[in-house]
Amino acid sequence: MQFFTLDLWRQLQRHNTPEGLEALREWERRSAEYRSRLQLMRARVTDDVFSVLEQGLLHDTVMNSITTTSTGPRAEITVKTMSRDAKEFVLTFTDVVEFDAEYHKRPDSLSHGPLFEWGYEELSPAEENDLSLAVLFSSGGTMRIRFRSILIG
Questions:
Q1: Are 105 and 117 in contact (CB under 8 A)?
Q2: Is 37 exposed, middle or buried (0-12, 13-18, 19+ CB in 10 A)?
Q3: In CA terms, which of 5, 18, 88, 118 is 20 to 30 Å from 51?
Q4: 138, 108 in Cβ contact below 8 A?
Q5: d(Cα 119, Cα 85) in Å, to the nearest integer?
């Protein structure tokens, strides 16, 4: 994660302290920088995907399933998340060439809830016209998927 790091997210939890206020300023600066980069990738994703990412609608959802299908040299990954108000998001990544996850719960986690509570995501360009989506979970775990296209339903 380049913009939304676990360390900075932890510092944000120190409300009404000099460190917390400094972290808030840094978070706002990084958020603006990320939104600018996201705008540059708008043409590479569907309007639905862009809207969900731009509005941060995946924040605080819980990833309740991940399914992989492999046909040939690239795979398809489907991620389902559920919001607190029971809205389901289904993200389908096609032509996946790389998938990394760190899924253990850390003792210094920001959450005592579900292991895969979605914190923040970063969409970025990757090699060979691919895209990459990195996710930071409140447990401190991360996931990164490098893919060619993404749909959301």
A1: no
A2: middle
A3: 5
A4: no
A5: 16
What would the pLDDT profile of 42-88 be if each residue is shown by its tens digit? 999 999 999 999 999 999 888 888 888 877 666 788 888 888 888 88
Q: What is the DSSP letter of 20?
A: H
- pTM (two decimals): 0.86
Ranges of beta strands (E only) in the chain are 62-71, 74-82, 88-96, 98-102, 118-125, 131-137, 142-147, 149-152
* 108 residue type, one letter: D
Question: Tokens representing 24?
Answer: 């808030």
Please, what is the Cα angle at 135 between 87 and 82, to 5 degrees?
15
Averaged pLDDT of the chain? 87
